[in-house]
Amino acid sequence: MDWECCWDKSTVTTSDCPNIGEGEEDLLQSQQRRILEKCCDCDRFKHDLARFRDSGNPLAPVLALINTEYRHQKNQIQSLVSFLDNKTLEVRFLHELGSVLQSSVDLDEVLSVALTAITAGKGFGMNRAFLLLFDRNRNLLYGHLAIGPRNYDEAWQAWNEISTTDMDLQTLAQNFRHKKLTTERAKFQDILKQMTFTLDNSDHIFAKTMDSNQPALIEDAFHHPDVDPELARLLGVDTFLLMPLISRNRRVGLIIADNCITHRRISEEDMRSLETFTFPVAFAIERASLYDRLQVELNRVTEAGKKLKEQQEQIVKMEKMALVGRITSSIAHSIRNPLMIIGGFARSVLKNTPETDPKRDFIESIVGEARQMEGVLDEILSYSDALYPAKDFWNVNQMVTATISETSDRLQALGCEISFVPGESLPAIFIDYKQVAYCLKTMIMSAIDGHKGGRIDIRTYGDGDQVIMHVSDTSVRLSQEDLDRLLVPFSTTLELGSGLGLALCKTILDKQGIAFNIRLLPDTGIDYTISFPTRKEE
């Protein structure tokens, strides 16, 4: 019999078999492979089988049955190969996704990867996804983030961008996080604001889904008995998928996914694939959330530790200062009584001593030295009292004016000029008036003590929630070494004498939490800057 197909030939040419294409030339020499791969599906072979059957040969039905079964098995194998290829891609995708989720503790990064995986064509290929997080304190779900297009034009632009850039899943997620996370949240803000659902209502579809811990495919949502019509209207789709996020029996959130643009049917296989995906996502979100809370608590503990250390240092410092205060106070009180007696008797004798008496100069010297010693004792006692300030709200301009008035006679006697530029509409400052006025008076008197002439400029102004006072003194010339010694109690400089002075001022202001800075002016003089608080400390 003259057969149409070339199955009976050991070797053929390209003209003998029209089914052999370019790149398959090796089939021309292999009869077995040619029969299995080409002949069984060839129309010529089918005609040969029909002619063979018509010839009445008893093997014809058997050969036809074998051919049919072979083609059926071949189709099944091809389907299995396609299925395995898809599953291989899915496993690779889940492996890549799991690697990112397991290594990240940043909540925004986790959410970006998760939602990108749901909506990307290289992932699960859904058009849109909403993430609702669970609030344990209020037992409700609230809209946190969404991703996807709002219309077809936006979807086409996104698909075109993905196809031209050919980015992998991790790159897509990073691109979304850095460039689109904020805009996507803002784009769906109107919907996310309305997505707050309490789980106290056990009849709500979200509550049922979270309680069952199983995904739910909602179809015909506008007529579904368990779906609130308001929810269906808000989503604007008839079919959507609900994926609960549960980590170790703890509720994390809920994902809503749909195909609002393509309207592609969501299959059971899609739902099962997404269900596998939700387990690592729920764990990653919970871990990232816990990490954020841990960072907040760590920062809080670090700040508390820092404050505790400062307070401990302050306590040690105050204990040292209190010891010094007790010693100086004890010494001052022991000296004060005999000094007052000496000064009192000297002043009494001075009143009854004629101007011509040669002893009058000695008596005046005794009176002057006694007065100076009394001033030193007042400073020592003030140093002790400075440990316990009594604070209240005061007007800074009135305090400066009153202090200048108290020192005006001394300033005039030494020919020193003083100017004051008060700030306008300044808030009241929270200070111990007596101590701060003493500090200002000390700065003024230190500037003029032992000098004639010179100038002192004082000005006040507001700076945020503080009031600043500047005192500039141009009457003295000091080195940095002398300035450092001035801030040590009982130190001595050639310019400003000895005693407590500025060291006491610094102690007083530090105890009240008032910043006190001293710097040397470029040419001559000292600049004092005091920053007063306008509110009580908590």
Describe the structure.
The protein is α+β, with helices and mostly antiparallel strands and 538 residues long. Helices cover 54% and strands 16% of the residues. The chain has three domains: 64 residues; 201 residues, GAF domain (Beta-Lactamase, 2-Layer Sandwich), CATH 3.30.450.40; 147 residues, Heat Shock Protein 90 (2-Layer Sandwich). A six-stranded antiparallel beta sheet has the order 3-2-1-6-5-4, with helices on both faces. Strands 8-10-11-15-14 form a five-stranded mixed beta sheet. A two-stranded antiparallel sheet has the order 7-9. A hairpin with a 5-residue loop joins strand 14 and strand 15. Helix 4 packs antiparallel against helix 10, helix 12 packs parallel to helix 13 and helix 13 packs antiparallel against helix 15.
Structure characteristics:
Heat Shock Protein 90, 538 residues, Beta-Lactamase, 6-stranded antiparallel β-sheet, 16% strand, 54% helix
Structural class: alpha+beta
- Our Rg estimate from Cα atoms comes to 47 Å
For the record, give the distance between the C-alpha atoms at the N and C termini, rounded to a whole number: 109 Å
CATH superfamily of the largest domain: GAF domain
Tally of individual domains: 3
**Oligomeric state of this protein:** single chain
Helix content estimate? 40-55%
CATH architecture of the largest domain: 2-Layer Sandwich
Q: What is the beta-strand fraction? A: 15-25%
